[in-house]
Amino acid sequence: MFFLQMSGVPGSGKSTLARAVGKATGAVVIDHDIVKSALLQSGPADLDAGRAGMMSYEIEWALIDFHLSQGQSVILDSPCLYDVMVERGTALAEKHHATYKYVECALDDIKEVDHRLRTRQRMISQNDRVPSEEVFRKAFAGSKKPGDVPCLIVDTSKAFESYLDEVLRYVEG
């Protein structure tokens, strides 16, 4: 049993990879954008994206805790931009004796990220473009690899097939 946290900029290929890994391993995939979009669509009119995001994560942690307690492997598909995400993830994995894994989808090409964001089928919680190069470089570009946690960084500018097997070996190994 494993708990995999995905990481990377919006548009870097996290969801595509998370779904493929989930399908190949039978792991439950918890997609942050699905939960956040559902809250934004059904919540009170004054619910802003920031509050919806925080609420989404609390729901997701509860779901992860439940599925791990049932002996199921779990994948959290979210940007994982904050250290507290890794802390909570590693704590839940330890609590349930699951192997903790972390995969970062690295894509530092702002034009490619912007193209992916503009051409994908988008949920209400998802970006439809890169806000600005400054925001991209500051908040999203570069590795978010956690300090002392083992991590696999995949270059998602390459063909999907070129790294899927490597990710599966890492997760199942």
Low-confidence stretches: none
Assign an overall shape: globular
Determine the CATH superfamily: P-loop containing nucleotide triphosphate hydrolases
N-to-C CA distance: 11 Å
Number of domains: 1
Number of helical regions: 7
Rg over C-alpha atoms, rounded to the nearest angstrom = 16 Å
Tell me the helix content.
Answer: 40-55%
Taking all residues together, what is the mean pLDDT?
83
Question: What pattern of helices and strands is seen along the backbone?
Answer: EHEHHEHEHHEH
Fold and architecture overview:
This protein is of the alpha/beta class. It has a single domain (2-172), classed as Rossmann fold. Helix content is 50%, strand content 16%. The chain is built from 7 helices and 5 strands, in the order βαβααβαβααβα. The chain has helices at 14-25, 32-42, 49-69, 83-95, 110-119, 133-140, 161-172, and strands spanning 2-8, 28-31, 74-77, 99-106, 152-155. Strands 2-3-1-4-5 form a 5-stranded parallel sheet, sandwiched between helices. α2 crosses α3. The termini are close together.
